[in-house]
Every structure is written in structure tokens, then in C-alpha cells.
Amino acid sequence: MSQFNSALFFGVIIGIVAYIMLYIGKGIQKYAIEGLKIDKTIRSKHSGVWIFGTVLTVLFVFVQWIPLSLLHTPMNLIAPLEGIGLITLLIFSSIVLKEKISKIEVVAIVLIIVGTVLINIALITPEELQREAVSFSIFGIFLGIIIGVFGLVYLLVFKKSNILTGIVLGLAAGCFMAFQTLAKRITDIDGLVAIFIFVTFLFAILTLVLTQFALSKARANIVIPCFTSASIILTTILGVFVIEEAIFPVQIAGIVTIVIGIILMNIQITTSDEESTEGSVAEEESVKDLDTEDSTLKA
Prior knowledge:
Elements: H1 6-36, H2 45-70, H3 75-78, H4 82-95, H5 103-121, H6 126-129, H7 136-157, H8 162-186, H9 193-217, H10 220-242, H11 249-298
Helix pairs in contact: 1-2, 1-4, 2-8, 5-11, 7-8, 8-9, 8-10, 10-11
């Protein structure tokens, strides 16, 4: 534990802003997609809205870079802030998309906030913030394991189940998000800036492609918790083993609390969607029955 550090404080604040931008961008994209289902023309106003949401998600890459590289904020403080982004998306959906917030989601919000507070209780000393070395061998081992395991699992499930494929791809995308965060942090080290700027964008592209592919196979309510949980957990592990970032038990407790909150939040959303889908199917069947009765009477 240590005394208050202003650079670390502003790093956390900017990290929160970055994730709010990312998830508001996702919320705007969701809003636009719902509109495009009705108005499918390219010149639809919803196309412009979708582009605006996409711009916000792209800006996230650069804003997140500030605390990780310029302010030397540890990854195990930045990555868990993604939970705040999910809360922002939930509030956006409630206000703009008129989606109700349930009691379970309120509990999830409280857990995420408590977890975030726990993580940031442990303010690290300035000497621990500047990274001077990176273990490329461990970096390569982790990357090889992730590619090998997910590549093998994908080959086993992609022809059997779209949902399982979406889960696998969502987890893989979250892992590459973790490597993207790590690459940004490594640009803080002299002599490695240029190459890891390139590596960051490479991982960013892989993350985007895998996420979109995952969403094409399974619902966002399944993919997002897989993505977010994998990103937070692996980022913390990479920080400890690859660049030897310090982590305290209270931070581990905070990360676990946030992941539980994320899972609760998305379980509730999935349940609501299923109820909505069942209601829509029932309504469609009712309309069909009425049409059939009407046709019989006319005959």
C-alpha cells in the first residue's frame, strides 16, 4: 500500500473515460442496427449514427493508450475498469433504448462498483509504475498457448454449434484484447515503442475481427461476458508474469467481484431476451391463428 499518487489517479480517471467511450459507442451501434432493421437503405440516417458509434469505439484505442503508456498506469488497474463501461451501456440502453433495469442488474452494478473500489485501494509506489523490462519468452509462451488452444477448440466446435463457436471466439477476442492492452503498456519501455505500436494495432484488428465473427455466431448477451471476463483476467495475469507488475490480494478480490457482476448482468439480459423472444413467437402464432380463422369464415 502507498500514499496517494496523482499520475495514478488521473490514469484511472482517463481509463474510465476510455471504457465509457467504448461502451457508449457500442450502445450507439446497437441503436443504429435496430433502426437499420426497419430502414435498410445505405443512406438511412441510422448509417450515420452507426458510423459515429464506430468512431467512438476506435477512439477508445488511443484514449486507453494515455494511462497505459504516458502515465504508466498498471494494467491490473486499467483492465477491470471495463466493468464501468458495461454499467454505462446498461444506463444508455435504459435511457435511449427504453430497456428496463432489473433488481439483478442493480446488484450486478453494485458488485462492479465495489470491485472497482477494491482494485484502486492499492495505490502502487512510483518506483513500481515504470516498466524497464519485458519477458518476451513468457509473452511468446502465453500467445502460443492462446492461439493453439483456441485454434484447436474452434476446429472441434465450429461445425457442431453456433453458440459454442460464438463463446470460443468471444473468449479468444477477449484474450487478444488483453494482449492489445499489454502491447500498449510495453510502449512505455524505451526502445520498444515503434514495434509495439505496430503490435498494438495488429492485436486491435484481430480483436475487432474475432468479435464481429463471434457476434455473427451467437448473441451479444453470450459473447460480451465471455469477452470482458477473458480480457480482465488475462490482462492481470500477463501484467504479473510478462512485465512483473505488482498485484495485491485486495485487487484480486476486486477483479473476482467485477467478473461475478458482469456474469450476473448478462445472465439477466439473456433471460429477458429469451422472454421477449418467446412473447414475440407467441404473438406471431396468435396472428397466424386469427388469419386462419378469418380465411375459414370467408370460405
